[in-house]
Structure to design on (462 residues):
């Protein structure tokens, strides 16, 4: 009974019923038409035989010819009777029995020179019969229906064999077809069952590009993405616990030192505590922003503003830190450019990218910020000649808590959330960000702006 719930059985049963009904109808239709045609051929053959004798008797109506006709049919499976107009027997190829006499006694009605079939009930009567008139009488032809019935019986026997063969072939084909169709579905069911139990290492073979193949590929992709998300969640929890634990350890440790050494100069300790508290505050703010982005409640308030003054304002904010490290920041941007963007979020993006470039640049190095149009695309490019990013790390730098510096030193700081937030903000604007880097040479960050979000005022006036 359990097997009745299998989808392969259900699909196979449906296909089987449909195919058997279709084959049954086709075989029945063919049988009926072939039987009708075969019986019709028997009637036509009988009538043509009678008309042939009639034609001979019309030309040579003598006793010798009549006798020759009777002798000729006595050697066949047909019976011929020649009667006068008053239906008196002239000659017959076989003695008349009661059934023949009944047929001959029936009124034939109006009959043309072509003759006609006067008894056609081959299923219930003993004979089928035809009559062909000539000028001096009638030629009756008889054929025993047992011969016709035997012919039809043989035909029915062949149809039964064909039907059984069709039944068997259909059954085998349906079993194979249902297996072929349902095997991928069963594989997908087993795969989803494993996924629900937490086993995400599922592989479903995709052997076709139809809907079943696309569904299998979707399930496989879902398992991979889910597995990736689960790993990301584990890494996220591990990272956030580490990132929160480190500043808390500093705060607790230096607060304890300051508490125990009440007569010492605690300015240094308080500065460290203040610095680590700021890091915690920044981290919580970043986590809050990412949470809002994940809930799609992160609002972008776009407005037009001159781009160069914004960049100069950012440069002025960062100049003390850059000067302290002897790092030169160069900004190149046309004066007549208006940008459609959220100014607060745009400033956050640029400061974050410049801060990263600053941290990983050596003293007396250069950082360039350039806004220009290349191949029809407006690009904001930030380029440094710092230590660069290893090739194996480059694809992952925009992931949350991913850090190229695995040592997490306090000198470089950071939480691994900055670039993730940058990417989210840029994508929320409909822009793109691309990173290019080479170790020992430097890193280039390119923001590809939408064409409609940047306007050259002089071009617009024209």
């Amino acid at each position: 009974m359990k097997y009745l719930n299998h989808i392969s059985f259900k699909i196979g049963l449906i296909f089987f019923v449909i195919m058997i009904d279709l084959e049954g109808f086709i075989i029945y239709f063919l049988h009926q038409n072939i039987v009708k045609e075969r019986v019709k051929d028997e009637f036509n053959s009988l009538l043509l035989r009678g008309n042939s004798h009639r034609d001979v008797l019309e030309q040579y109506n003598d006793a010798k010819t009549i006798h020759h006709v009777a002798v000729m049919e006595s050697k066949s499976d047909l019976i011929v009777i020649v009667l006068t107009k008053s239906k008196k027997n002239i000659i017959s190829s076989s003695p008349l029995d009661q059934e023949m006499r009944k047929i001959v006694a029936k009124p034939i009605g109006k009959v043309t020179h072509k003759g006609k079939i006067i008894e056609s009930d081959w299923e219930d009567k003993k004979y089928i019969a035809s009559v062909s008139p000539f000028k001096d009488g009638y030629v009756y032809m008889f054929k025993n229906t047992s011969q016709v019935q035997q012919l039809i019986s043989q035909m029915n026997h062949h149809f039964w064999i064909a039907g059984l063969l069709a039944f068997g072939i259909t059954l085998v084909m349906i079993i194979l077809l249902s297996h072929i169709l349902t095997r991928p579905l069963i594989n997908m069911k087993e795969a989803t069952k494993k996924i629900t139990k937490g086993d995400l290492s599922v592989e479903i073979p995709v052997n076709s590009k139809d809907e079943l193949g696309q569904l299998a590929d979707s399930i496989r992709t879902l398992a991979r993405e889910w597995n990736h998300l689960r790993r990301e969640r584990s890494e996220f929890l591990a990272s956030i616990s580490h990132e929160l634990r480190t500043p808390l350890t500093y705060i607790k440790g230096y607060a304890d030192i300051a508490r125990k050494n009440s007569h010492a100069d605690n300015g240094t300790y308080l500065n460290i505590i203040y610095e680590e508290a700021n890091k915690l505050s920044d981290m919580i703010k970043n986590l809050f922003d990412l949470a809002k982005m994940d809930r799609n409640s992160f609002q972008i308030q776009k407005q037009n503003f001159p781009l160069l003054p914004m960049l100069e304002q950012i440069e002025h904010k960062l100049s003390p830190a850059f000067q302290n490290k002897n790092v030169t920041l160069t900004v190149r941007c046309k004066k007549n450019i208006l940008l459609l963007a959220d100014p607060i979020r745009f400033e956050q993006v640029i400061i974050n990218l410049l801060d990263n470039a600053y941290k990983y640049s050596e003293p007396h190095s250069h950082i360039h910020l350039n806004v220009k149009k290349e191949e029809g695309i407006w690009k904001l490019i930030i380029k440094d000649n710092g230590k660069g990013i290893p090739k194996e790390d480059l694809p992952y730098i925009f992931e949350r808590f991913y850090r190229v510096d695995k040592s997490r030193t306090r000198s470089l700081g950071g939480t691994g959330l900055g670039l993730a937030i940058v990417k989210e903000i840029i994508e929320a604007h409909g822009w793109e960000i691309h990173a290019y880097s080479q170790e020992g040479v430097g890193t280039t960050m390119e923001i590809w702006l939408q064409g409609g979000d940047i306007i050259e005022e002089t071009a617009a006036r024209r």
